[in-house]
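Researcher: Please generate the 3D structure of the following complex. Treat every line as part of one assembly.
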Amino acid sequence: MSSGRFSVMHQKMAAHVSTRFLVTKFKDSVCFIQRRNRFKNKWATTRPKFPATDLALHNFDATYSKSLGDVWPSVRIGMLSEQKYGALLNNFASTSDVKADLHSRGCRDFISVACPKDDERIAQDPLQKPELLNQAADEDAGETTAVRVRSNIQCFVFPRGDISRFKPAKPDDSGLLGYYLLDAASILPVLALDTQPGHTVLDLCAGPGGKTLAILQSHAIRFLWANDLSGSRTDRLRRTLQRYLPKEILKDVEITSLDGRKWMHMDHTFDRVLVDVPCTTDRHSLMEDENNIFKRSRTKERQNLPYLQTELLLAGIQATRPGGEVVYSTCSLSPLQNERVVEQAVSIAQQEMDVTMQVQDLESFTRLFSGTFHFAPQPATGALVLPHLCANFGPMYICKLQRIN
Ligand SMILES: C[S@@+](CC[C@H](N)C(=O)[O-])C[C@H]1O[C@@H](n2cnc3c(N)ncnc32)[C@H](O)[C@@H]1O
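Model: Done. Output below.
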């Protein structure tokens, strides 16, 4: 190739590269730039006019500024900033070195900080009298308002305001990984579930498996059924459990890919049911265009979420034995997907299934963990973790219900 032809080609390539740069940098000048190049069609068809993340932000500004009021600007900054993680310690691996390393980096297990000894791990109003505290710990004491926290789960976090990152987990001598990284607020629904020795547990929407793994860390349960509609998500869950749990624990875990809404056709009932539903995953929707539920093509799916969530919670209620408990959770701030779904499901359960559900008071539970998380001023039902720059976990909504009959 002659040097002249080479330099013409080189100039064309340079123009191509610099144009691309301009397109990226000056989104509003798209038409002008495209007319000079041959990318117009491809661009016009593939590039959405408003990215899904922008649509999510507009939607949240309109709705959450009303539901959260003055708090919304600080929650907004938190959600647009880097999320904070927690390291769920793998109780089945050799973790003494792992714990020593986490301690040396300034991390603390937020659960044992909140509840120093097992017998003190009772989320209780400190102003309450001791005899009431005992009553709250008694399974058969009738109406209880306090939520117990008795768990072997350990989840390490960096101190408030410290945004250091965890190193990737390493395998121990038997090949099991030392910890699992997740939003530490994801542990709260599992702690509220309060699984105890001998319990049977259903995790109705379990993929990709962070909360399933946390439930199993309690060493406490007799049998766990982990289900998720999505086959790829249950595959991921299976792989995760294999990397963290010994084979003898895995034999007590059933994994299925079924539609949770049809659970009422199953015979089984469980002591505890976790219903961690699909939602607008607010933080993801603000930060990632990929798989974003605010894409225009997914508008209907998004609008239908509260119906799907109500159906899943009703299925979870039906799968709970009388006296057993259900925890409903989302990672959204939306009252329509949180309190309204719970209210709707409780009312339908009563009217159409003749099942009475009692919503548990989580005020003492939130007080226990308020050193680690920012909670919204008590919603009418449940508890809501708000993202905050100093403790950038969540959002996470949790509601606990007991099936009375
Ligand atoms: C918020 S995610 C669950 C996260 C999971 N609990 C964890 O901690 O890793 C919601 C899940 O619900 C699943 N899902 C959606 N529709 C469902 C249905 N009808 N039945 C069961 N699972 C469903 C989705 O595939 C998704 O994995």
